[in-house]
Amino acid sequence: MARVKGGKISQKRRKNILRQTKGFRWGRKSKLRLAKEAIFHAGRYAFRDRRAKKREFRRLWQIKIGAAAKSLGFSYSRLQHGLKQKNIEIDRKILSQLAQKHPEIFRQIVETAKAK
């Protein structure tokens, strides 16, 4: 049987793995076995945290909206309930931006949600 040397494809695969672990600490940046393990864990964390980031931003928007609504004498939950009853469909991201950058427009929205 012919002897198999470390061919181009294997070298390319190893080089790609080590390229992905650039900047990692200790042996995980230079040793193939440790690098593979590090890439595996990094991928899992990245997948998980892309979803966690969405949750964190939603919480932040809720806090900003709640603080702005409190300054106008209204609670966050009552504001959301009022908006839903009036069929005003503005998502939390836009509401928080309005509360922060355009308080007059936010005040008008709150007044609309208050009105019965």
Task: Offer a quick outline of the entry.
This protein has 116 residues and is mainly α.
Write structural notes for this entry.
The longest helix has 40 residues, at 32-71. The chain has one domain: Ribosomal protein L20, C-terminal domain (c-terminal domain of poly(a) binding protein). Helix 4 (92-101) crosses helix 5 (103-114). The protein is mainly α and 116 residues long. The model has no long low-confidence stretch (mean pLDDT 95). The termini are far apart. It has five helices and no strands.
Can you count the helices?
Answer: 5
At CATH's second level, what is the architecture? Orthogonal Bundle
> The CATH topology is what?
c-terminal domain of poly(a) binding protein
- What would the average pLDDT be, to the nearest integer? 95
Broad structural category: mainly alpha
Q: Could you give the order of the helices and strands?
A: HHHHH
Q: Please outline the major beta sheet.
A: none
Task: Give the CATH superfamily.
Answer: Ribosomal protein L20, C-terminal domain
Percent range of helical residues: over 70%
CATH class bucket: Mainly Alpha
The 3D shape can be described as: rod-shaped
